[in-house]
Amino acid sequence: MNVRATAGSPPVRGFAVCGGPDSRDLEGRDLAGVGGLVPAFLQAGTLHPLEDVTPAGGPRVRGWLVGATPDAAATALAAVRRSGVLLCGELYHRERLLDTLELTDAELTDAELTDADIVAAAWQRFGSSGLRLLNGRFAAVLFGTDDGPVLITDHAGSVPLYVSVDGAGWSVATEAKCLRARSASAVTDLAGTRAVARTVGVHQVRGASAVRLRGGRHTDVVRTWVPPQHRSTMAPDESTSRLRAVLDAAVATRLRPQCTVVLSGGVDSGAVTALGSQHQRLHTLTMGTEVSDEFAAARVVAEHAGTDHRELHLPAADVLAALPRTVAAAEIVDAEVVEYLLPLVALMSAVPAPATFLTGYGADIPLGGMHRTLRDPIALDDTIAAEIAEVDVLNEMSPVVGGFAGHWTTHPYWDREVLDLLLQLPASHKLRDGTDKWVLRAAVAGDLPAATARRAKLGVHEGSGSQSAWTAALRERGVAEPDVPAVKNAVVAAIFDEVVTGRRDPEGVDLDEVHDSVLGATRTHQESHQEVAAT
Ligand code: IOT
Ligand code: MG
User: Each residue of 382-405: b (16+ CB within 10 Å) or e?
Assistant: First the structure.
């Protein structure tokens, strides 16, 4: 499928590449079985073969990239040839990065200075420390080093990057479903990565990492960011003014012509809308179903910020039907997170491509927003620290969530500088005067209507009714209330096996059939247990 790119949106939306000592000659475009690659992208765009990008003297590299447009694909291919870097996604705060890199005037005036070229320049200038300068939303492969490619992720691992290594060579892709491990010789232990459950030999590169593959089986790992463990003693009013400044910069660096904020009417997306609207006129979009909506709250923000606002009414059944697409896009098996994403996937499916979306997603992780009932700052700080320690990739922010429909998404709260600040703040600034997420509410109090700045959190899965609609569907099938979370996880795992491991088109997966087979299997299992117990 070809889609037209929004001006300024990232040229590369996905890639799959392979190389190694035993990369055989390839005929035509079918790479199946060679280097373990299958161009099975869910990411929409122009599929473009990657040929003749082999670094001088290096082993052969072949594969595919998904360009936003045919022109974008050609631009990206030229960048790989020029700089040896294949990059999916984008860098932020580019001007400051360029200042730090101190490129020559000749380098700077090069009209072809893409983000891939900038990553290459950072590497050439400072080696792996140069990679520590990058604040962006990207996954990249750097070719042309002596003995193997370097696999690079952003600080949050927000663009997933998968790798598989076997005797024949290595393969790397932005979607796990594109890798085909040949189990017999697949390497099972790769430093800097973690095995992807329910696949054979597929590993995901950790976030904030640069992993250099050496001679196939060995890796060198450089960590490019760690979440701050300390807490600052800055005064509350300094926290709020600094937060407003870094969030404003994070929003500003993400704005593109005609971009849209997905707006719930809560303080997170409300703040993005209010700050962004001070730079340019924005579009805002709110979705709701017959079960639940947040239209009134969103309208208050949109009117205050003067956005071009739309409401999207979707049947709850359509939101639920987006389950296979959601699992295929995020490539995760955690049903709770899948439920957060469902309404957003349904929304993005209903919008004509291409659009660039800014979200308020992720604010609740460093602010502890999902724990608004915790009233003790010490417990809150421990909870936030524990949750952040667990996050080493954030597939829920994968560009494929939106990219399947030709859109680009970006999440200002997980800008590296916003995250650095939020994580450093003492919990007493997050829970203050009995108010949750106090520092954010205070930071944007002057930018938002008072009611929005104060508004209590309503999760996207609650505000859109997607959670209750799925629960109701399972209850109708006789699932007991306490079993609902486990059944949801089993359903998501079964879908994962189909659409990721089995590489099936999610549009062909019938949710009723999955429910039947999961519940049938559970019932058979329970019955056989009962029989065993009876004998
Ligand atoms: P929530 O914070 O409600 O929503 C995330 C974003 O989705 C919002 O900021 C907004 O941009 C968009 N959104 C939500 N509802 C709508 C709507 N009705 N119409 C249009 N856009 C909408 C869960 C949650 O409750 O989302 N996300 C948390 C926690 C993630 C936890 N993950 C983890 N620990 N790995 C978050 O931080 O966003
Ligand atoms: Mg939120």
Answer: ebbeeebeebbbbbbbbbbbbbbb
